[in-house]
Design brief:
There is one protein chain. The protein is mainly β. It contains 2 helices and 20 strands. The chain has an 18-stranded antiparallel β-sheet that branches. The model has no long low-confidence stretch (mean pLDDT about 85).
Amino acid sequence: MRVDARNYTSARATKPDASASVHHIAIQFPVTRWGGGALGVQPYTQTGYDFTRYETDQRLISDIGRIRYHHRGSGGINDAFIGLAGKPLSFFSLGFNAHFLFGSINHQQDGYIPTNRYYADFTYTNRSVVRGMRLSAGAQLHFAFASEHARQLNIGFTYDFYPVFSVDNRLELKQVYLNQELSVARNYQRLHRSLRLPPRYSGGIAYQDAQWLIGGDFAYQDWTGFSLYGADEHMGKSFDAGIGVQWQPNGTDLRSYAKRIQYRLGAYYSRTPAVLASEKINDMGITVGFGLPYRRSYSLANLALAVGVRGTKAKALVRETYVRLTLGVSLNDFWFVKRQYD
């Protein structure tokens, strides 16, 4: 579960916002002695905004009046996945995931002209229904060092590509004259396109011993030249980088609960593919968290807090400051036990 508190700031105004949602559900299970599987569902993208602005063009204001625009957005793309992974060698693991992407994204803009009865108010709706597939392949090298502290080093790489991705788009314009809807003023257009999304490359490294886990990862995706319905979206290259550390004083000390807690600290920096008014949009923040063990089992309650900043106020854009609280539960149990005696 995730709870977000956000504050949007521009050169002219500030607006707070908040939301809560169930983020993802996943399950892992053994298949053979050297491999296992996983399946689940999670959000791939999310859209949500609601704001009002007023016309600033003095020529339009003098000719028509002060137009009020109301913008709303909702929806998102969901990711249902299934995966298989195995360890054919003691130091090498390999895995594959198939992701099915589906959902809809809705954008609506209302225009009101309260001071001029000769012009029509309007509502413009843009609804996109998305269907697609993402395939992922990953490999991991595992190096264990003989010592009493159980030191080990893991290095992993993943590659994602999109063989199928399509969008059904419905554009609708409705005009209202004198507060009466006229059907002759309503028109819409349907579009269908198959898209080619750029592949994504990522890698990471982690060191672990009896008390410490230290790791970092990096991902890259080139959106340059991406177009939607024949129009260049003016997007750029994106990357994500993150580092983190976890400390657990003594995971086997049953007398002290505080020593079995996992204490976590991290930081991240992302450059999103969006380029607005020639400005690149960045996202950065820090995280703190705890892994809280449940009794004497391997199950954990995970609590995390992230504080970050996304965007910029330059060139009439909007900067988002957010605080995100995440609560998760990892359940580890034996579901299938072969009987030795009947």
